[in-house]
Amino acid sequence: MQQATAMSQTTTRAAPWRPLAILTAGVVLLHLVLLQSAPLSLRFEEPEVTRTFITRTVVFQPPAPKVTEPVRTAAPAPAPRPAPPQRPLREPTPVASAAAAPVTPPATIAQGADSSTQAASPVPALPMEPPAKTEPAPPTVIAPPAAPDTQPASTAAYAIPGSTRLQYVVTGQQGTQPLQGVQAEFLWLQDGQQYQAKLDFRFLFRSLRSQTSTGRITPDGLSPERFTDKRRTEVATHFQRDKGKISFSANTTEVPLLSGAQDRLSLFLQLASLIAGNPAAYPAGTVLNIQTAGPRDADTWALVVGEPETLKLPIGETVAMKIVRTPRRDYDQKVEVWLAPSLGYLPVRVRLTEADGDMADQQLRATSSP
Questions:
Q1: What average pLDDT does this structure show over 314-329?
Q2: Counting CB atoms within 10 angstroms of each CB, which of 38, 55, 197, 275 has the fewest?
Q3: Which residues pair with 235 in a beta bridge?
Q4: What are the CA-CA distances from residue 345 to residues 106, 114, 127, 162, 349 (Å)?
Q5: Which pLDDT score, from 0 to 100, does residue 350 have?
Q6: Mind giving me the DSSP string for 187-223?
Q7: DSSP string over 9-21
Q8: 200: how many CB neighbours lie within 10 A of its CB?
Q9: How far is CA 168 from CA 10, 108, 128, in A?
Q10: pLDDT score recorded for residue 235
Q11: 196-214 pLDDT, tens per residue?
């Protein structure tokens, strides 16, 4: 009895844990239900990424041009090789052999001493060197294809002077002032095919004016290609024979190119070559009409052959043939040149007179090898 009572008390004291067990079992059961309904794998949502758009410009280059190989055809039979083009002499040398002796035309100073090129004020004359006399190089003779009784320019014989150097004393008048102390030097070079001529006027070591003429030597004598005239600036005259015209760098009007045309420097050499080729064909009174180009224009000059004269020059007494260009218009320049037979008809004196009375007189004082 006591034992039963003890067990009853024990049961009564143990009863409070049962609700707790039931509660616990319920919680476990609830969790099981929830776990069965949950997904087996967990996903983390990626954070929203802000995307930045970058733009760029694409430039399309045009395709490279397609190079096509030129169609090659059989080369035609070679034509006869033309003569090499003639070039201006860079360093002309005098012709040494007599067989190809250079032609020495009367290298006169065309318009070289006109008043604008002279010193502005009188200066004391320079002491003159003792006259020197050197025999010029033998001329180059160009014979005509035939020997007609008349002497037309197209069939004239030419004896072109050999390379040489001529030195002049220049005197004259510029306005009210006398012209003194000026020297002129003319350098003539040719090799039988090409020529180069240069005329310099100097006072002490200063150049007052310079003229040049370059061109070819042909069966008709000299054939100028370019003429220049330089004082403060340089102007040029071009003989465009392929186009039949003469043009000027001074922007003046072009003129037709006539047969036998010369410039104001080559003219005197052409006259010397022409007369030296057959002096008997040019007696006193003969008129030679030659188109003559200057730095800005070109005109036909009527040149009249005069009687021989004996001149007293710095180089000594010399017999020379006088040729005159008489002005046709009020502003034309008068040109007088004396060609000496003893020097292959090179010019030993040139006198230029302007319409206003200014005058320059070049007189030969020495000759030498170039």
A1: 95
A2: 55
A3: 229
A4: 6, 23, 28, 11, 11
A5: 97
A6: EEEE-SSEEEEEEEEEETTEEEEEEEEEEEEETTEEE
A7: HHHHHHTTHHHHH
A8: 18
A9: 166, 10, 10
A10: 96
A11: 999 999 998 889 999 999 9
Nearest-Å Rg of the Cα atoms of the chain is 52
Contact 347, 161 (CB under 8 A): no
> What is the per-residue burial (b if ≥16 Cβ within 10 Å, else e) of 44-59?
eeeeeeeeeeeeeeee
Nearest to 101 by CA among 37, 163, 167: 163
333 in Cβ contact with 324 (< 8 Å): no
Question: To which residue do tokens 């090129």 refer?
Answer: 117
Is 168 in contact with 189 (CB distance < 8 Å)? no
Q: Report DSSP state, residue 331.
A: T
CA-wise closest residue to 339 among 353, 351, 350, 355: 350
- The rounded distance, in Å, linking the Cα atoms of 215 and 238 is 10
Of the pLDDT bands very low, low, confident and very high (cuts 50, 70, 90), residue 215 is very high
3-state percent breakdown (helix, strand, coil) of the chain, nearest 5: 15, 35, 45
Contact between 237 and 250 (Cβ < 8 Å): no
Per-residue pLDDT at 40 exceeds 80: no
**Structure tokens, 146:** 């035939």
Residue with tokens 């190809």: 100
With H, G, I as helix, E, B as strand and everything else as coil, classify residue 118: coil
Q: What is the largest CA-CA distance in the chain?
A: 196
Q: Is the pLDDT of residue 185 over 70?
A: yes
pTM given for the model = 0.63
Distance CA 51, CA 41 (A): 29
pLDDT tens digit sequence for 218-243: 999 999 999 999 998 999 999 999 99
Residues in CB range of 131: below 8 A, 6 or more apart: 314, 315, 316, 365, 366
Tens of pLDDT, residues 247-271: 999 889 999 999 999 999 999 999 9
Q: State the Cα–Cα distance between residues 157 and 192, nearest whole angstrom.
A: 15
Q: Which two tokens stand for residue 87?
A: 């070039």
